[in-house]
Specification:
Elements: E1 4-8, H1 12-24, E2 28-32, H2 35-44, E3 49-53, H3 61-71, E4 77-81, H4 86-94, E5 99-102, H5 107-120, H6 143-156, E6 162-165, H7 172-181, E7 190-194, H8 200-208, E8 209-210, E9 222-223, H9 225-228, E10 233-237, H10 244-256, E11 258-259, E12 268-269, E13 273-278, H11 282-287, H12 293-299, E14 302-305, H13 316-330, E15 337-338, H14 340-348, H15 354-368, E16 373-374, H16 376-382, H17 393-411, H18 416-423, H19 427-436
Helix pairs in contact: 6-7, 13-15, 14-16, 15-16, 17-18, 18-19
Length: 457
């Protein structure tokens, strides 16, 4: 598939000329005239490269670059200017702009620069084969996730430690697995451990292993998770929950690239790529003395921030239908989709538990579904939202009137005289109301016979 280039220039003639040249070179081009239009396009679809004039009507190209960089750190930008100076070029390059060309420029030079940028950039798909299997577990079409996955792919090729930040349930382990699968270590083990789920007394043994007899209950040698992940990747989830004494030992392992099992006299060399994740604010934890600063910098060579589900709502319809297909097979049901109002309720719900909560909600509606199309009522139940039935005025009035009459008859044990008096209506009018709603007073008398006739005097 041809690379997609976003072209930004307020000179309409040059815009047409560049669009023609780039299209002739095999690129797919989207051309806009302002920085705001460029940002709007980026919100819809992420290109592989941005080519922008420096002087734009609503802001300069460097300001546009800064905004692009804040959202899409791996997206290359090339700037064009008719008034280039050496200091401008130096500043642009220092800020991370991939290329800076002065008009008029040679077309070959521009095309070469574009080819270089595309060769070094990392799109979410594999540049060589178009293989996206490394991230197949991550279902998304949002530009924000596309930018994150581009960074993840770029980082995967190195052995740099990565700290993944994100709310609980946002998919931190899925992202860690994707990084592992995109890395040269993909054929080696991927081991994950939740540091907050294992008691402090056992966590050291789980991570580093122990020798037989090292403590009560250690009846055999035990390989730790670092050894189990040797050659591959170890993912430490909820690293912010790791006790301080263990943080010191983890730092030593990272510095020395070796582990010493509990009760052992010698350390064992290891070759492990470390990924970690947390939903906690580690900066605040460091300030409170709950997290070691030296360990933080060892773990946080690169940070990836996962957006919450509320920040990528365009992914919700995609996710729910993906989950529905999987769960329909699990529950052996024929489920074809969600009713429009049910899908709208899912797309607009707050989702504090993120993707994990969304999956649980879809599983609940699948388990309870009795028809191929999931109705709003089941979704509201899964979301714990009271079902709101919308009635016409006449329907609501009819239902209220019947319920009111039933309550009066229950209260008066079916006595029409007493019920009419409480309703402040005469008996004739009250009887008409009962006939209108097909209500028989005798059914409400405590001594009524099974056929509804009163046996009381």
């Amino acid at each position: 598939m041809s690379a997609h280039i976003l072209l930004v220039d307020d000179d309409t003639d040059l815009l047409k000329l560049l669009s023609m040249r780039l299209s002739a070179a095999g690129y797919r081009v989207t051309a806009v005239e302002t920085a705001d239009a460029a940002l709007a396009r980026l919100a819809i679809e992420r290109p592989q490269l941005v080519l922008s004039d420096v002087r734009l009507p609503d802001r300069d190209g460097l300001a546009l670059y800064d905004q692009i960089r804040a959202q899409f750190r791996a997206l290359p930008v090339i700037l064009l200017t008719a008034h280039g100076t050496i200091p401008d070029a130096v500043e642009a390059t220092a800020r991370g702009v991939f290329g800076y060309l002065t008009k008029p420029f040679d077309s070959k030079v521009l095309l070469d620069k574009i080819a270089q940028a595309l060769a070094l950039s990392a799109a979410p798909e594999d540049r060589d084969s178009g293989d996206s299997s490394w991230r197949e577990a991550i279902v998304s079409r949002s530009t924000r996730m596309a930018a994150l996955l581009a960074e993840a792919k770029l980082i995967a090729g190195s052995d740099a430690s990565v700290l993944i930040r994100g709310e609980s349930g946002s998919g931190k382990e899925l992202l860690a697995q994707a990084i592992h699968r995109a890395s040269p270590r993909a054929k080696q083990p991927f081991i994950a451990v939740n540091c907050g789920a294992i008691p402090e007394a056992l966590l050291e043994s789980e991570l580093f292993g122990h020798m037989k007899g090292a403590f009560t209950g250690a009846v055999a040698n035990h390989r730790g998770l670092f050894q189990a992940a040797d050659g591959g990747t170890l993912f430490l989830d909820e690293i912010g929950d790791m006790p301080l004494p263990l943080q010191v030992k983890l730092l030593r392992v990272l510095q020395e690239r070796s582990v010493r099992p509990v009760g052992a006299s010698q350390s064992l060399p290891i070759d492990v790529r470390l990924l970690s994740a947390t939903h906690r604010d580690l900066d605040a934890a460091m300030a409170d003395g709950q997290f070691r600063e030296d360990l933080y910098y060892r773990l946080n060579v690169v940070t990836l921030a996962l957006p919450s589900l509320a920040e990528r709502r365009e992914d919700i319809p995609l996710l729910v239908n993906h989950f529905l297909a999987k769960l329909a097979e699990k529950y052996q049901k024929r489920l074809n989709g969600f009713a429009p109002e049910a899908l709208e309720a899912l797309a607009t719900a707050p989702w504090p538990g993120n993707v994990r909560q969304l999956y649980n909600a879809v599983e609940q509606v699948c388990a309870l579904a009795t028809s191929p199309i999931i109705p709003l009522s089941l979704v509201q139940r899964a979301l714990r939202v009271p079902a709101v039935e919308v009635l016409s005025y006449s329907e609501a009035k009819q239902r209220f009137e019947r319920d009111y009459l039933v309550r009066l008859l229950k209260l008066t044990d079916g006595s029409v005289a007493d019920a009419a008096r409480l309703a402040e209506r005469n008996r004739t009018e009250f009887y008409r109301l009962l006939q209108k709603h097909d209500l028989t007073p005798g059914l409400f008398r405590e001594t009524a016979s099974p056929n509804g006739d009163s046996v009381a005097s």
